[in-house]
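Dear V.,

Thank you for sending over the compound details. I've combined the ligand you provided, flavin mononucleotide, with the protein sequence from our construct and run the structure prediction for the complex. I'm sharing the raw inputs here so there's no ambiguity about protonation or stereochemistry in the SMILES, which I know was a concern on your side last time.
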Amino acid sequence: MKSLGVNIGNITLKNPLICGSGEHFIELSGIEKALKAGAGAVVIKSTNESDAAKEQLEKTDYALLDSNFNKLEWDFNPPRDASVFNRSGLHPQPFDQWLELAAAADKLAAEHDAYAVASLIPASTQKLLEYAREIEKAGIRILEVNVGAPHGEEAATGAIMLEREASRISDITKALRKAVDIPLWIKLTGQSQEIPAMVKAAKDAGADAVTLMGRYMGFIPDIDTGKPMLGTHAAYGGPWALPLTCHWLVKTRAQIGSDYSLMATNGARNGHDIIRFMLSGASAVQMTSAIFASGYDIISNSINELTDYLNVKDLDCIALIGAAADQCETYADQQNRKDYWRDFTPT
Ligand SMILES: Cc1cc2nc3c(=O)[nH]c(=O)nc-3n(C[C@H](O)[C@H](O)[C@H](O)COP(=O)(O)O)c2cc1C
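Below is the predicted structure of the protein with flavin mononucleotide bound, written out as structure tokens.
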């Protein structure tokens, strides 16, 4: 039996499947189901101090789309290539109740040899630091701070911070690192060309790991009604996003080195996607939409797929990390094939 264990900074996870934050982790019952299904860690639904961000949860909407932008039934059995288009809000409870939930969740997680990760999406730096200290005081073992939530610019003013510049990532991470000693994960937006620089800024400022990378904002006209689907811009993600995250994992690894923990998010739908992300340089993978739209069994199914692969290849999980990334060549390295392009042009 090959080892599934992976290290994220100084933390060892029993396997690389982390359940990313989402509505299914608003309540302890959802977190418990994910832990029972074998997740290495579960990121609790994010919170901050903004009432507008909480109220936004009452105005959410979700669509599951096929590749022709047709709505699919939300029957918890979507095809692998379904994409999720949605707007979201933050955890509905006041911070003290959220904190109680998070502490109970992390205690429960420890019984499963796993972690429940506290998650903040900041509205202001001052409250971010105050809440981070409270989280540490409550005994929660890991904090993730998402400074790249895609809804940032559509949400009410002041409800959600969305950072795109390395200097801001540096300032926020330094302040957090001064405020708390617990492992700190920084989750970044994918809506920037500065991704390796943002990761380096987080690393240099003391973050234990970085999660790459948040979903994209989209707009989808409904051609029957002529109106915007769901009525607004919304976040969009699907399996098509996996290569985009992999691209930035590889670029980041090349620029900052192989000794820093990167986590992947955006596009994982099964165990083979976890492998793809790890081969690109991720030490662990956060899976959200697949669980939200398919149910908790996808967690154990994905871990089984990963286990089978490792057994067939006779590899421990950590051997996957960056193995494809480190073989990535340049365009100039490729062999010359005269007129080969003609094979790909229509006659
Ligand atoms: C319905 C929904 C709610 C989400 N809520 C949060 C959240 O509260 N905090 C957070 O950091 N990410 C949140 N995310 C982002 C996911 O954790 C994840 O990074 C993203 O969906 C891409 O991964 P996926 O393709 O596995 O869904 C949410 C995503 C979805 C679909």
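A first observation: Residues 20-23, 45-46, 84, 86, 88, 90, 119, 121, 146, 187, 214-215, 237, 265-268, 286-290, 292 surround flavin mononucleotide (CB under 6 Å).

Warm regards,
I. M.
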